[in-house]
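User: I'm writing a tutorial on reading structure tokens. Could you give me a worked example: one chain, its sequence, then its tokens, then a sentence or two explaining what the tokens reveal?
Assistant: Sure. Here is the example chain.
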Amino acid sequence: MQPRYFVFGGGRRAVVSLLAIMAACTLPTEAARAGIVAYWNFNDNFNASEGGSGYDLTSVNGASIQAAAARFGSGGADFERASSQYAFVNNATVVTSGADFSYSAWYYLDLANIPNTSDRYFVIEATTTAEVGYPISLGLRDLNSDFEDDVAQIYTSINNGAIGTNASVDTLPNQTWHNVITTYDASTRDMTFYFDGNTFGTTTLTAAVDAADRFVVGGHRSGTGRNWEGYIDDVAIWDEVIDSTEIARLQTQPVVPVPEPSSVLLACTGLLSGGGMLLRRCRPTSLPK
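And here are its predicted structure tokens:
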């Protein structure tokens, strides 16, 4: 018995139309958003969701992706401090000295309270591969050893390692999701800080921020020693100052939203029905020439 094939009626024009509809109906992936240097949604792995494979993170000491660690999407990064877990990438420019940048990160500290002032729990930090300077540095600590003043601290270095700014905000309660966003305007050297979408300070640096080509998630610039306990999700870096509208959106949506497949499928159904093309069976010899 000869095989049967399904083709569109109408010869070559129909085949061309079919190819056009197939292209239009391909489900879109997470489209790149302008200005993003690198973005990690941690839905499936530690690879960069935007920015290219040069920004893929390497997990260390068993850091993993877990569904329970997700703020958005199907997964998030899970880190255990006792195992010194973190993830990193080297030789990937995340910040250019003298240029605008912004960053955003969601974190969930899985501790009721940080036990003492000597313990620091880092969400993210960016430095050079030689670990000189840190234009991006976000971590938590207890300032007074009273189990009540856990704060998020943001540091930014200038002049190859000198501290350019230090901002702190009370983060209680722990064991819930929080978002920190920082923007830097190179033209004014103004750095502005946002906690859960609300501004908590602006400072003007006295020099341009340091560059960075090493990025660490779940630890500080050396990787081990000040590791995270809990979850981190939806981390992004931009080469621009993101505006208030984007900052507000990021409180309820991931950096790059995933399109709803249903809307695409409905549109494609309309294309197929509107084209008036019917499938028919034919023998191999009747394929359009």
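What the tokens reveal: The chain has two domains: 5-27+261-286, 36-249. Residues 40 and 119 are 26 Å apart (CA to CA).
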